[in-house]
Amino acid sequence: MKIRSYAAGRLIRGTSLVLMTVVLASCATGRIDPTDPVGENAKQIDGLMRLSGYMAAAVGIFVAIAVVLVVVKFRERPDDDPDELPKQIHGNRKAELTWTLIPVVLLVFLTVVTVPAVFDLSGKGDGRTIKVEAQQWWWQFSYDVDEDGTSDIITANEIVIPVGEEVNLEILSNDVIHSFWIPQLNGKRDAVPGRVHHWRISSPVPGIFYGECVEFCGLSHADMQMRAVVLENDDYDAWVLEQLTPATVPTNDAAKRGYDLFGRHCVSCHVVNGVYESAADGNANLTSGYAPNLTHLMTRTSFAGSVFELYKDDGSVNVADLREWVRNAPGQKAARPENRQGMISFAETLSDSELDDLLTYLLTLGGPPPLMPN
Ligand code: CUA
User: Fold this and answer.
1) Do 323 and 258 contact (CB within 8 A), yes or no?
2) What separation in Å is there between the alpha carbon of 221 and the centre of ligand 1?
3) How far is the CA of 346 from the centre of ligand 1 (A)?
4) Ligand 1 mean position to 138 CA, how many Å?
5) Which protein residue has the closest C-alpha to ligand 1 atom 1?
6) Tens of pLDDT along 154-202?
7) Residue 142 in contact with residue 153, Cβ under 8 Å?
8) How far is the CA of 176 from the centre of ligand 1 (A)?
9) How far is CA 2 from CA 6, 8, 11, in A?
10) Which ligand 1 atom minimizes the distance to the CA of 136?
11) Rounded to two decimals, what is the model's pTM?
């Protein structure tokens, strides 16, 4: 009876483990793929993962076969004396040495191939440096940061890099600990307040690669995603030129009204280069001090921590989601605006026509993006 309930317990535990794995696996967004490395660093990590995986599988198969053989060979036979123990091997030097040395050799081998890779991956390369700042719950990327900390190009959630070039990242955080991960380009690297962590990403092909924050960082941790947009060199140069162009005051009536509304409601957090810069240099009215720089909002493919698409499949702007975001951001993505973590709601503040004007203005802020997600 006891044995049966033990077996039943194991069956239940085993089944729930399988179910849990299936459920958790289905949580992945599908676009974040650690099994398909593209960048050099990601390939290096993938190679090591496979090597240790194959070694573990070989050991597992060997042990499983050995267990079966031992069980069959030393089973109790009908004419055995049940009180007599089989020959004991405790203290058998040959056996002890064998099963100690084999794991030692395997582990030393894994150490020798893995440790240099760990140091190699965290070193600084020769390419350009992009500053990566994490905050609740989105990513900021600053290019060519001057000694005084200012940068001419600041983007949110989407890091744009030229194809074939390995860029250096300087990763830090403006509030709590986050972790940077775009699995097709490289492994995970923590973003820690008060520290700078170096990392490098590159891709030999153009495209959009998806990533997300992988350190639990509060309410919207799961909605702190990002994209790396890898462009051909000509497209990259054009993108840089556009990003370097400051915004101007719109001439169209509705856009001008939206521009004025932006000046009344949005500038305590958001920067638009050339026209609204009071929240620059970490002066946003938020715990982290930063809100997304919106100068070239429409050159991005997504918004709000890359949770919502900025464009629809047909290439037109996803006005509905953007409007709802501006109207009531906390209703679209978990946040604590009362604690200055995340955008506040304007549902009570802005009328429908004011929202329309504000949207009209936002749509003038650059674009469209050089690459669309497929
Ligand atoms: Cu940021 Cu999790």
Assistant:
1) no
2) 4
3) 25
4) 8
5) 178
6) 999 999 999 999 999 999 999 999 999 999 999 999 999 999 999 999 9
7) yes
8) 8
9) 6, 10, 14
10) 1
11) 0.86
State the burial class of residue 121 (Cβ atoms within 10 Å of its Cβ: 0-12, 13-18, 19+).
middle
Q: Rg of the chain over CA atoms, in angstroms?
A: 28
Strand intervals (E) in the chain: 129-135, 138-143, 153-156, 158-162, 167-173, 178-181, 188-191, 197-201, 207-212, 225-231, 302-303, 308-309
25, pLDDT greater than 90: no
Q: Nearest 5°: phi and psi at 170?
A: -110, 105
Ligand 1 pocket (Cβ < 6 Å) reads: 134, 137, 178, 213, 215-217, 221, 224
Does domain 33-122 fall into CATH 1.10.287.90? yes
Atom of ligand 1 nearest to the CA of 134: 1
- Reported CATH class of domain 128-374: mainly beta
- Domain map (residue ranges) of the chain: 33-122, 128-374
- Find out whether 140 and 293 touch, Cβ atoms under 8 Å: yes
- Indicate the SS3 state at residue 164: coil
Instruction: Looking at the CA of residue 216, tell me the nearest atom of ligand 1.
Output: 2
> Distance from the CA of 175 to the center of ligand 1, in angstroms?
10
Pick from 158, 169, 154, 161: nearest CA to 244: 154
With a cut of 90, say whether residue 311 has pLDDT above it.
yes
Atom number in ligand 1 closest to CA 221: 2
